[in-house]
Amino acid sequence: MKLIDTHTHLYLDNFDADRNQIIKNAISHGVETMLLPAIDSTSFDAMMELSNLHPQNCFPMIGLHPTSVKDNYENEMELVEKELSKGSYIAVGEIGIDLYWDKSHFDQQKDAFKRQLRLALKYKLPVAIHTRDSFDEIYPIVKEESTDELTGVFHCFGGTESEAQKIIDLGFMMGIGGIITFKNSGLAEVVQKIPNIHLILETDAPFLTPAPYRGKRNQSAYLTYIASKLAEVKKIDVEEIAEITTKNAIVLFKLV
Ligand SMILES: [Zn+2]
After folding, report:
1. Which of 192, 201, 195 is nearest to 253 (CA)?
2. Among 4, 122, 153, 181, which is disulfide-ready with 210 (CB 3.0 to 4.6 Å)?
3. The domain that contains 73 carries what CATH number?
């Protein structure tokens, strides 16, 4: 069984003590491909170092995370633009709007998001979108910028049925992570109705750890728990879920 972790931050310092073991664990659990969403310039070198150490397994994205959009965001955008012009990234991400942690840079977040959607179109790359308390702000922007060419994923999807339908109408994917294993999240009921063709898997490690390890540090090997839960929700074999979501991820991120 092969799985793709489409969103994992294994380059963060949470893994400094045992990063190699974490990569080995993932591969031994069938998670041979790990996609690394960027955050900002402070963790950029670590992300590239990990990608260079494991060029067959770890693939970087480039983008400015909405919680890192501060007064200096023009400098951060310069790094994103410069790196994109080098052409060695699988996606523009993670980008988006986050109104949970800080609303004071909302205008700058919107500007950075819109510009990075356009960069994705320019470089023909998919986008990995972070939404937190912000679906109603993000959706009209994506819709407005949307063309037949714009593709991507709403990472760590935890929304409602009507939000899922809007994402489907955009032709985007939903990244399913640990939230689906949380009791009372209500996500299983929503995901049950989403066509499989719109689903990919992710851990968002070290965050959002699935049951039975909820509360502990997350890692890419735990993607197996998410796949099992999704299989249970969809009432199909986990091997089939692996096959479908892996294929979806390969197509979206052009991993062949
Ligand atoms: Zn993330």
Report:
1. 201
2. 181
3. 3.20.20.140
How much is the pLDDT for 148? Answer: 86
Point out which residues pair with 123 in neighbouring strands. Answer: none
What's the 9 CA to ligand 1 centre distance in angstroms? 7
Q: How far, in Å, is the centroid of ligand 1 from the Cα of 36?
A: 8
Cα 195 to middle of ligand 1, angstroms = 24
Number of domains making up the chain: 1
Ligand 1 midpoint to CA 54 (Å): 20
Burial string for 104-142 (b: 16+ CB within 10 Å, else e) reads ebbebbbebbebbbebbbeeebbbbbbbbebbebbbebb
CA of 122 to the centre of ligand 1 (A): 23
Q: Which is it for the CA torsion 245, 54, 90, 208, positive or negative?
A: positive
Overall average pLDDT of the 17-46 stretch: 98
**Bridge-partner residues for 58, per DSSP?**
34
> Domain span at residue 50?
3-252
Residue 35 CA to ligand 1 centre (angstroms): 10
Tokens 């489907």 belong to which residue? 168
pLDDT of res. 114: 98
* CA dist., res. 158 & res. 201, Å (int): 13
Q: Is 237 helix (H, G, I), strand (E, B) or coil?
A: coil
pTM of the predicted model, to two decimals? 0.97
CB 175 within 8 A of CB 201: yes
